[in-house]
Amino acid sequence: MNGLINVLKPPGITSHAVVLSLRRLFRVQKIGHTGTLDPGAAGVLPICVGQGTRVAEYLVNKPKSYRAEMTFGITTETHDAGGKVLKRLPGVKLERARVEEVLQDFIGEIKQVPPMTSALHYRGKRLYKLAREGKTVDRRARKVHIYEIKLIRFDGELPYPRLLCDITCSKGTYVRSLCADIGEKLGCGAFLSFLVRTASGPFQLSVSYTLEEIKDRYERQDFSFLLPIDYALEEFPALIVKEKAVPHVLNGQPLAPAGIMGGVGKSDRPLVVRLYAPDGSLLALGNYRCSKNGEWYYKPQKVFCLLHQNI
Fold this sequence. Notes:
alpha+beta; Pseudouridine synthase; Archaeosine Trna-guanine Transglycosylase, Chain: A, domain 4; four-stranded mixed beta sheet; 7 helices; 19% helix; elongated; tRNA pseudouridine(55) synthase activity; PUA; EC 5.4.99.25; PsdUridine_synth_cat_dom_sf; tRNA pseudouridine synthase B
């Protein structure tokens, strides 16, 4: 089995547990996710299977989108609903205009200190495991990018005001830390009370599958949940390889212009391309190269050898 799966992770289980469940179901070893989603959060979790794991690096770096709820006036140890409450400030009064103003302050490049409950490694051990042992270590602030925070609903009359918003951000962004920082800037504190990932790169929540749906379809030999590997590669232009050059590409040999159907113009030479056989089968990803004498070619960097099928 080779391809990608858009899994709808339920709250209450880890991303690793999703991988283990599918590994047992499919009886495969090569399988993994493309970015941890907190156990308490639900939403899109792209899974790579078989040769699909070879394109995971192109998915990890893509922007992520979330629908998040912040509750103001309460701070927790983990910045989310799963942590011990540290402080309560009932009766907080916030004006919508002020909240919108502060949200705009977090658009663009910001620095975040990873929470102790994150899955980052520190000297070979996950931070959340150290946190369970009651340990706290220094963490270096990291740069992340917030592309958009769109306010959906604000309930300012509640004893603890709530804000529902859509957030689009770069990889490595901790939404719970973002919520805590927004609450701190507003002077009342806040925690992440609800989170669902609505998109991860090209993967959308509206076309995701639960583990139960995947299991049911797989047992009926219905592989409609399995996306092709090139679903993650649409940003790279596609070139068709002439039939006689297909074996050379599959063997990792350079692809000269004579082996490309239709030709490539002098000013139209993408740095990375998808290489396909005439029948539409994905062969490889190729990188642009140019020799000292000016002759250019594409060097296959990732050869997929899918034998004209994904399953």
